[in-house]
Each structure stands twice: as C-alpha cells, then as structure tokens.
C-alpha cells in the first residue's frame, strides 16, 4: 500500500511540476531564482519519494536520489535545467562536511580496539591492492583510449584518482545490511570496522592525490619542497581546526542549548567558509571534529542524532543534483570503462581482504565472506566525483561521469552480494531464525565486544 501511495505521489508531483514549468515558459516567465525555487521544492519531494522506493530493491535511498536527478535533468525530462541547478550547488561543500561528520561519528576507538590489528591490516592491504590494480589497469587504458588527453601525465593523474576513489566503501550501506539481517559475528564486525577505518583513510588519500594531480598538471604547487610543505600545512592545520571545532561542539552539547540539528548545519557551513579562507579541504577537519566528540565526551550519540535529523534534506539536494549533472552522452561512451573499473576494483578488493586478514592471523573463512561487504559505494565517493568535476573542468567531468557510473553499478550489486554472504556465513540472524545454519566461529584471539 505504501509503495502504491509513493508511486502515485511521485507521478502526481511530476505531472504538476511539468505543467507549472510549461505554463511559466508559455507566459515568458524567465527568472533563474524562480526556477531554482521550483527545482528545490520539487527535488526535495520527488527525490525523497524515489529514495523510499529504492529501499524496496535493497538499495540505499541515495540511489533513488541519483535516479530522480537523472530523470528530471537535461538528459531526461529537463525540468531541472543547469541554470536552475546552479544556485543550488552551494549545498555541495556542506553535504561533504556532513558526510565526513558521519564517518567521524562511526570511528569509536573503544568499539574497534579489541580487533584493531585485523581491522588495520585489512584496511591497509585492501586499499593497497585495490589502488594498485585499478591504477595499473587504467594508466595504459587512459593513454590509449583518449578518454582524457593522450599524455602520460594526464593518464597517470586520471588513473591515480580512479584508484584512490576505488578504495572507498560505504559505511551506511554496510550498516543498513547488517541491521536488516541482524547479523552478529566476526564477518559483520570485520566489514563494519574496516569500512569505517577506510572512510578516514580515503579522505586523507584523496586530499593528497588531488594535490599531487594539481601539481603534476601545473594547476597547483609544483612538486618539491613547496608541495611537501603545502601537504603538511593542509593536513596539520585541518587536524588542528577539527580539534578546535570538536571542543566547541562538546561545549555546546554539554551546555544543552537545544536545536542540535540547526547547530550541526551551522557548524558545517562555518567550517566550510573557514576552510575556504585558509585554503584547506574541509573533509579532514570535519571527520576530526566529530571523532573528538565521539571519543572524548559522552555527547557523541546526541550529535549523531542531530546530524541524522538535519542531513537528509541536504543529502537529497546534493545527490539528486549529482544525478542531474550526469552527462548521459558521456555515459554511453564510458560504460565499458565503468564495467572494467567495477571488475578490477572487485578483484583488488577480494585479494586485499584475503591478504590483510591472513597477515592478521584471522580465519580464511572470515575473508571468504567479508570481502563482499566492501563492494558497495555511496556518499563520499560521489562527493569525490563531484569535486573532481569541479576542480578539473573538461577531463575531470568525463572522469566524474565514469566514477558515478561505476558507483551506481557497485551500489546495485554490493548490498545483494553482502547480504548473501552474511546468510551463508550463518551470521544473518533473520535467516538463522528460519533454521538456515549456524554462526561462523572466528579463530581470532579477539572476541566481539
């Protein structure tokens, strides 16, 4: 009944908006702000409805947001034009800050410390293998294909960015599948812990790779001491700024002034502006700030609840605009590369998980099932794709389209593969209730806390 209602509302909303859009064109009403206001209200409702329907296909809501953006964008019904979308792009940096806030909130030292060796070995090995496989495959491909300019420096830069983003996973997807299946055990612990640690790692790696690519292409600091100093400055000041913001958050939460959702949004906006003034990337500062709140106070849960309350409208606009800006003409050219990226990433991920858990002394059975939990990609990966398109117009926009295409594929198959593995491992309690098996036992010296 709920599905039919959501579908009816989405179709009705689409029809009314098309009618209003056509009437405005016929009467010669051409105001960018009016179009943007209509686009904002429409996207918030339409994308939300499609996001809810995406859950029925075991996909996260952001998949529905992306599909909504594609449907109403220039390559779909053209309801939300590029001109109307431009004023709404101010939410990009705020959304990325909120995504980083979420990642920092998941990084609880006390929760993951008992299995820290396995988690760090697996996160490190998986990142190295995935980056190496994707990079090695795409340097010659980019050079030969002409998808970007046929220069070695451009091929190196594009392959490096692809490799770094390929290491990213989706904590939200992992948490959703584990919660839905009520999974408990070494496999689900490994998936969740490694995914959270890698969220931190990939933010740092992405910042370094963007700086390196800018230097190689002559769009930033040249390679050498000046570049090294810029990296140290960027990371050091970002960590310090994040620590200060985290302390201020703790003080506000302890004072119990209320309005936490509004406070979170205000902090995100202020932090983005400060980082812009200091020429810093806000992701590392954001993740550090909430890490401080989560691990050095008792206010972490209240902050995360406020974050969840305030972030949904921002995420709806952010991800639907990412879909709206997706170049389907370019996608028709890049889909073979996207498929290759998905396959190469999958191979590197599997090998990295097996190697990491083996070096940590974990059971091979854990690796056999856990690697599928790292296929899904979502929030931060799409955010990186948007940043690449903005930072490097032209070839960066093509690369962004390729990345989003691969993310969509990964996000469609990843949750399904993960749920199947949790069921086969015996950790999915929803399946065990029906008598499907016994929980998998770990040979690790660490027990679940």
* Total count of helical runs of at least 4 residues: 19
How many domains make up the coordinates?
2
The global form is globular
Indicate the percent of residues in helices.
over 70%
Q: What's the total count of β strands?
A: 0
Reported by name, the CATH topology of the largest domain is: Na+/H+ antiporter like fold
The main sheet comes to:
none
Q: SSE order in H/E notation?
A: HHHHHHHHHHHHHHHHHHH
Provide the CATH architecture of the largest domain.
Up-down Bundle
Radius of gyration, rounded?
22 Å
CATH class category label of the largest domain = Mainly Alpha
Please tell me the overall pLDDT. Answer: 79
Tell me the span between the first and last alpha carbons: 40 Å
Architecture overview:
- The protein has 449 residues and is mostly helical.
- The chain has two domains: 2-88; 92-432, Na+/H+ antiporter like fold (Up-down Bundle).
- It has 19 helices and no strands.
- Helix 2 (32-54) crosses helix 3.
- The chain is globular, with a radius of gyration of 22 Å.
- The two termini are 40 Å apart.
């Amino acid at each position: 009944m709920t599905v039919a209602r959501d579908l009816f509302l989405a179709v009705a909303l689409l029809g009314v908006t098309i009618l209003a859009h056509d009437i405005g064109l016929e009467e010669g009403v051409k105001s960018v702000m009016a179009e943007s206001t209509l686009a904002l209200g429409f996207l918030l409702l339409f994308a939300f409805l499609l996001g809810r329907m995406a859950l029925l296909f075991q996909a996260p809501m952001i998949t529905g947001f992306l599909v909504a953006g594609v449907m109403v964008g220039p390559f779909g019904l053209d309801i939300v034009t590029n001109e109307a979308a431009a004023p709404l792009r101010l939410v990009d940096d705020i959304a990325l800050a909120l995504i980083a806030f979420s990642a920092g909130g998941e990084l609880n030292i006390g929760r993951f410390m008992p299995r820290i060796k396995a988690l760090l070995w697996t996160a490190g090995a998986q990142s190295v293998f995935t980056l190496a496989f994707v990079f090695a495959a795409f340097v010659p491909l980019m050079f030969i294909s002409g998808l970007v300019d046929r220069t070695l420096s451009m091929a190196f830069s594009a392959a490096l960015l692809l490799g770094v983003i390929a290491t990213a996973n989706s904590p939200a997807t992992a948490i959703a599948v584990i919660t839905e299946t009520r999974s408990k055990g070494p496999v689900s612990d490994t998936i969740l812990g490694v995914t959270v640690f890698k969220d931190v790692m990939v933010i740092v790696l992405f910042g370094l790779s963007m700086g390196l690519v800018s230097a190689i292409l002559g769009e930033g600091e040249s390679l050498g001491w000046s570049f090294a100093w810029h990296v140290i400055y960027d990371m050091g000041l970002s960590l310090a700024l994040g620590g200060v913001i985290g302390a201020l958050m703790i003080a506000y939460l302890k004072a119990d002034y209320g309005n936490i959702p509004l406070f979170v949004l205000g902090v995100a906006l202020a932090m983005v502006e400060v980082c812009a003034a200091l020429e810093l990337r806000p992701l590392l500062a954001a993740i550090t700030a909430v890490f401080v709140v989560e691990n050095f106070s008792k206010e972490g849960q209240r902050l995360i609840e406020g974050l969840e309350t305030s972030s949904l409208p921002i995420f709806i606009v952010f991800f639907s605009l990412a879909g709206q800006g997706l170049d389907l003409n370019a996608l028709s050219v890049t889909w073979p590369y996207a498929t290759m990226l998905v396959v190469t990433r999958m191979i590197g991920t599997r090998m990295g998980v097996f190697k990491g858990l083996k070096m940590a002394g974990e059971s091979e059975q854990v690796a056999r099932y856990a690697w599928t939990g790292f296929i899904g990609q979502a929030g931060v990966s799409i955010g990186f794709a948007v940043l690449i398109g903005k930072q490097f117009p032209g070839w960066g926009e093509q690369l962004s389209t390729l990345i989003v295409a691969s993310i969509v594929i990964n996000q469609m198959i990843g949750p399904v593969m993960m749920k199947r593995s949790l069921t086969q491992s015996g950790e999915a309690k929803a399946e065990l209730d029906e008598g499907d098996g016994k929980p998998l036992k770990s040979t690790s010296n660490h027990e679940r806390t």
